[in-house]
Write a structure and sequence with these properties.
Layout: E1 2-3, E2 7-13, E3 19-26, E4 32-39
Antiparallel strand pairs: 1-2, 2-3, 3-4
Length: 41
């Protein structure tokens, strides 16, 4: 897990053993405002 000012990245081994990362951006209300998923190909 990587923590930024208003963001969080979760990296893990996804399906079929491939690396994956999910990025979450938080608003001032501490709720997720946007999220992005990245997968190794």
């Amino acid at each position: 897990m990587l923590i930024g000012v208003n963001s969080l990245i979760l990296s893990y081994k996804g399906t079929q053993g491939r690396m994956a990362a999910e990025v979450f951006y938080f608003g001032s209300d501490h709720k997720v405002k946007s999220a992005y998923a990245h997968y190794a190909v």
